[in-house]
Amino acid sequence: MTCSHDPLEGSAYRWSVPHDLRSRDDVERLVVEFYRRAFADPLIGPIFTDIAHMDLGAHLPIMCDFWETVLFRAGVYRRNALQVHRDLHALTPLLPEHFDRWLLVWNGAVDDLFAGEKAQLAKVQADRIAGSIGRRLAGSSGSGFETIGTRPVPREGEA
């Protein structure tokens, strides 16, 4: 069902049944809506606006490349996402609560705009990416799995 007149002009909300992410245009719609919400968020908004001084016009195509590559294996993203976050982390600590909020805002945008297999993948991959970057910034492995450590060698007389 579609409304010919959009009473919420300028809002991400539309009077239509959500469809799955199918194209770069859909990725762009999602990324734009995410940043609209993220910039307005009291916890993570200042990181984007006051710390990173993000030029959204320049940043959006990069993030669309990133998510198009993640979701559709487009191969158009050619940067180092971890290094960007390391540089930002050097300016202000990126803490678990920042990644949690980022995920909340991202998942809300996905759920409000799209439904389907790729929409679910967008949320799963965001969770993996946030976890990996968060762990690496904290000095751990990017993997969520703990590696097997070595056992201490028993001393003579110990079993």
Automatic annotation (TrEMBL):
Signal peptide per UniProt: none
Residue ranges, annotated region (Disordered): 140-159
Cited InterPro entries: Globin-like_sf, Globin/Proto
GO molecular function, one term: oxygen binding
Name by which UniProt lists this protein: Group III truncated hemoglobin
